[in-house]
Amino acid sequence: MATAEEVQNVIHVVYQNGAAENARREALAWLQNFSAKPESWATWLDLVASQAQQTQFFAANMIYTKVQKDWYDQPDAVKQDVHGRVLQLVREFVRDDSQRLSNRCLRRLCLALARMTVQTPSVLDMYMNEAWTLLSAGLDQQQQAGNSSAAGAERALFVATELLIVLPEEKEAEDPPSTASLSDTDPQGIAQRMRGVLAQVVEAVTQLMMKSDKSHIHARALEVLHAWASTGVDVPTLAQCNLLRPMLMSLVSCQELNVLEMASQALVACVKKDSPEAITGQEESPATLASFDELVEGILAARGRIAATCEANPSSSGQSHLSIEQDPATQEEVALSLCKLVVAVAEAQIDRVVVGATPSLLALVDIVMMFTAHHSRNVAILTLEFWHLVQDYSLSQRHESLREPCYLQLLEVLLRQSQIPEDASSGYEEDIPDDVQSFRNSGDGVKELFIVIMYVLGPRYVECMLSVLRGTQDWKAFEAALFALSSASRVINEQASKQDPRSATLRSFVETMLQELASLGLFGANGATLGAGVQVIGSFASFLARMDLGTIERNLECVIFALPFSDPVSRTGAEAFQRVCIASRLELALHADAVKTLATGIENAYQKFPTDPASHGEGSFAATKSVIFPLQARMKAIEGITRIASCMKLDAGRETLAVLLNPGLQRLFKAVNASDANVVAQELSVLCCAANYVDINVKSLKSPLDHPVSAILSEILPLLENITANAALQRDTEVVDALYSLISASFLSAKAVLLQHLDTLLTSAVTQFRITWSPSCVSCLGKAVEVFSSQPGAEAGFKNLFARLTESMVVCIQEGHVTSDPTVVSTFFNTSLTFLIFCPGAIFAASTGTATGASANGTMSHEGDSTLDTFLQILARCVSSDEVETLRSVAVFLTSLMSRLGGSAAAAAAAVGNANAAAKARSVAQYRPIFDNALGRNGRDLVKEIILALAATCPPTPLSRLAQGMADLAVRYPQLVQSAVYDVFVQNPSALSRLTDADKEALVTTIPFMAQGVGTRAKDAFLEFARLCRKQTSSDCFRQLMSSLRAPPEVIEIA
């Protein structure tokens, strides 16, 4: 047993300046181990009396920690001894004028006593008597004028209030076990016992408030009340005990901030405590209503102080000393405290407030409005929930002062509060202060409230916004009005779609706003107004679609102006451009020249501010201000024009797309010749975007070559050889991604063109995958087999391609490329699933005939392995991935493979009359013998890896898929599964080295799910599995597991 001196020396190492981190960690570990011993109680209690305050605190903290963890298990004699000694230390603190024991050490001892009381409720009376004795002694000593022991009185009151404060906190923190496990069985329980002493606590607070004239004692008393409020102190209780009035006086006149804050916190806690009537669903009694009315009157008496907190620049008026509500250093804290109380009372009495039950309650609403208009948005945001609650009552239920006039005033206030500061004109969110951002955009912010106001005001809401936009010369007010319009746009669009006079008026205002918006002088004043303006245009795209061509064009031209303005404005503008183009595509498709003008405008914007900042000259505006045309924004704009062109007649559509895309094609050719990978990737991405969104009915074409995408590919394909032969380009992942994404997007629309070059394209894709490990190369093969697998003679080529892809995937895994880009694996298995559906022979091919993918140690892709052998080895290697998407793709492939091999997919397809799908599923089932042989060679490794994956922590969806795959394997290959389980748990325990005990238990709990609904053979397999798992889990868990599987009694008895 270590001595107290030895323990103190180790504590010194923990606090020693300059001590090595390893030494400090070892010292802490030693102290933790020592504290776990029963005899450490005495040592820690002795060390609390140490002269070194660090040692004092460490020992007191360890006592508290031991009480938290070990108190239930201590013998009664130990409990009594420790409790008595800790209580004695607390008493000595009160008597000791030398203040040997520090305050923070005393707090830890009080926490320990409180936790002991919570866990041993029968000592509560002793605890409360101790607090009351100290409180009475402290107050008596304070009232004796000239008493030399005033410091002792302060210590007594500090300890008394500390004991009262920490007890409810420890009760809330404690989660006790069932009383059956307590040595001191307490049928009443700590919660009920604490409610029994509530009157004593309230009396203690009353004594402190009435008998002491010291503000810090009042603050401590209010902190006690705040702590006990949840136990049962409500507003009627405060009124009955005559506590409400002195607390309200603190709100009106107290100049001590801590007292005011604690009074507010205590009152808020009491207000939020439901009255007995509310708990039982009865109407509130006259006494309860009277107590709340008294509280409201007290708040109204503080109206002058509240008004002072709302002055943005309080004037001292020659005063030498400012009040706390006027002092800029404390003004916001005072406002926050008062606002929290006002809102809590208004929300608690919301039923009476909305009907105007008393004039005072209506006056309370005026105070809420004052706080909503407060110059600190941290204060204003606290009031927003109240206005949401009012909206839960219909207008007919509300007092007339809470109808439209009130919401017009609220709208004016919120528009002012939503304004961003002068130096945030760029449009970048990071330039907007956090409090303004939170007020505008957080979940509790003003956006939702604008929707509420729109429901109340209807057309008048838009009319008010239009009035601000027309009349203001302040860009901040202009931007705020636009923000309010976009915030409520969803509701405006909904209401405007109705057929009634109110909706017709609303439509008229919105259409007027859209007609005038682009011509208003402040629209493009800066990035903030421009970004807000184009967002409004995008939000009302459906309105524009019903308006005349000139209005649509003007708004789109304004959006094009915003595209190269700045990154955030450009992205917002591109989104708006896309939405308007989609909504108005049928109207715009009739005016090809206008659309070509828009396409030219996009190109001009790009030429002015290209995507690559490096293309700007040094010192240019774009270079210094980072004004660029982001690629994603450009692609959205391209999508918008492409969707319009798809609705045009064929020739007009092709001409429009030529105007849109030809400048980029020219840049692409130049960039390839110049080996400019950045521009090549960007222009290929733009072309891919266009190919994705050209939507033309192929049957309407005279020739497949007439398709606009065919024309694009005809020009691009000659570049393929140049790109793949260029060392700088062929190794650039972005270039390769963009190139093969474009090809994949074009397979359907440019089928005739690509078919002529299919072998070259796909062979190049596999080669490029081996160079760059780009997932786009893999997905290109998947798209190709989906489109071209039905072509005569295609199967042989796809078999060869899939074999090469599989070998390349082995190398990719062995060289660690899947770690840097996990999407490679998920793309590979998604592509493999496509092959399984459209060309299953490629997966079940007889042999690769090569050892290209063989590893140095021969663990994967042995020479002569079939493609399926290699594939199963890849599956085993990837099934235990930590990546969710990888797991999902692996699990989906595994379950699909088992389903098709078993014929269930064919039966399901036949049942719904899909003959083609049924035939494809039957074509997979014919490969069952090949799969059986390959699984015999590789299946045990696969099953073992699935077991380990199931034991690991992973999201539910991949887990359930893997479990289903495991169950399918168990149904069809029970001996294989049992053998693999035996390998994992018995013959090869090292395979479990990465599993914790919790992992093993988690693995066992998956068994019932895996066996559920898949037949008795699966259950038999997993019964054997469970037998081998038995030693990894508890008897109760195992018995429950066996019962869920309906195991025979003799198996259950294994437990």
Structure description:
The chain is mainly α. It has a domain at 649-791. The chain is 72% helix and 0% strand. It is built from 61 helices and no strands. Helix 26 (459-471) runs antiparallel to helix 27 (475-487) and helix 44 runs parallel beside helix 46 (794-814). The longest helix is centred in the middle third of the chain and has 25 residues, at 650-674. It is globular, with a radius of gyration of 38 Å. The model is unreliable at 176-187, 613-626, 848-858 and 905-912 (pLDDT under 50).
- Please compute the radius of gyration using only Cα atoms: 38 Å
How far do the termini sit from each other?
40 Å
Structural class, judged by helices and strands?
mainly alpha
The general outline is globular
- How many distinct helices? 61
List unreliable stretches of 5+ residues. 176-187, 613-626, 848-858, 905-912
The portion of residues forming beta strands comes to: under 5%
Major beta-sheet overview: none
Could you estimate the helical fraction of the residues in percent? over 70%
Give a count of the beta strands, DSSP E runs of length 2 or more.
0
Mean pLDDT over the residues: 84
Subcellular location: Nucleus
Organism: Hondaea fermentalgiana
InterPro entries: ARM-like (IPR011989), ARM-type_fold (IPR016024), Importin_beta-like_NTR (IPR051345), TPR_TNPO3_IPO13_2nd (IPR057941)
Keywords: Nucleus, Transport
